[in-house]
Amino acid sequence: MNPWIADCDGKSPFEVLVENESFGSALTLLKAVFENDKNRDMAESARRYRDQRGNSLLHMLCIVNNERVLEICDYLLDNGCNVNAQNECRQTPLHLLCSNISEAGPSISKEAINFIQLLRKYNADETLYDVRGNTCKDLLSKFQTFRKKIKWISESIQHKDALSEAVRGENSQKVENYHYYNKPIGKGTFSCVFPAVDGRDGREVALKRLEKARLEKRGDMLQREVRCLLKLTSCSYVVNYIACTRDSNFEYIVVEPMEGSLDKYLSYNEECSQASTICSQIAGGLEFLHQSDVLHRDLKLQNILYRRKPHFIVKISDFGLSKFLQQKSGSESVMHSKAGTRRWMAPELLVENTKEHSKATDIYSCGLLYYYVGTGKKHPFYSSDELLMSNFQEIEKSIQRNKICWCSSLSSEAVYLITEMLSEDPERRPAASSLLKFPFFWSDRTKVDFLKLVGNQKEFEKPRIL
After folding, report:
1. Which of 26, 97, 136, 445 is positioned for an S-S bond with 126, CB 3.0–4.6 A?
2. Residue 451 in 3-state DSSP?
3. Which domains does the chain have, with CATH numbers?
4. Is residue 31 marked as binding?
């Protein structure tokens, strides 16, 4: 039985359970779907579920005035359901809550406050517009007392002190409504990233600052990054776009706050206990990119960000070098440029200047990341000679010669997956949509079931002699 398929009355089994206030059964059903590896497709259909009016499971639940539903919503959000999903009226779950509060007037329930705080904990965006042009903040504009009751939760662990100083106006600057700390928490070739606070409601954000003078030489780099972020906004494993702003010298992209880069995380956790989680989430993000006809073209440690609250998650970031595939031609590649970081590039891009970026080159870069995560910060084309490895040209030569230095700490499942992803032949590399089907991502239960299945196969009594 598929719990999301509607009956003749247009209601799914899950919806019926919620309407009958069988909340314990509804939660048990969700756990059976998300915690059984065989139900991966059904779990993804739960994340993508929409009813006839475009409402997600979160939309359906957030209007139920019962505190027991909070646990179900928390479970869905913790398992990757999009907190900012919009229905046909472009309303998010937070929109529906705020609309109900606006209609109810002064008699606001404790459950409504708890619901809003839960959604905010998972970065619900109160600045999104519905079809009538209303944001959640607009809907609550008449209820200042209520707004004060909602504590905008402090999320950051790594940047708490810096954000505290920014709020107090110490060692900080201001652009529009955003107060940001002077010292950047990340630097790229064309930008710096600063921790910031929205002065209107205390929401923590990150500001990516780009110098206008340098942008003029880079064409539509800013517009391209914003277009990509907007197209990918419903993906849980891509950094969430919030807004754009500017001052006389700089352009700013406002995004959700993260703790830091994957490189920094691994420097604290060399024996990475989260390796499988990190790799699966990167795979989920890359699959969404490629399904949306977006090539990242610069997958590397610095462009994978992590956060530990409310749960550990990694997200793909920095789409300044990304490109949309040319859908008219049916091509799955875009013309090569100097985009990307050479030691994280596929060999065909290093050898031939005319070679095109493709989904396969993104997969190769992803394979390099998997090796690095699984081995505690080693590049697959590293050398035991540290002096040679300090020279990036030596890494490039090893990539071109396909001289992989396999590390004994990698499991056989990891070696098999990475070998396929780092194939010299781009045609042999797996698609992003098939990565999570590899044994490396199987649960222990799935592995045991597979071995039982193989063990139960009948042997040939008289095997054929070739």
Report:
1. 136
2. helix
3. 13-146 (1.25.40.20), 159-255 (3.30.200.20), 260-327+336-450 (1.10.510.10)
4. no
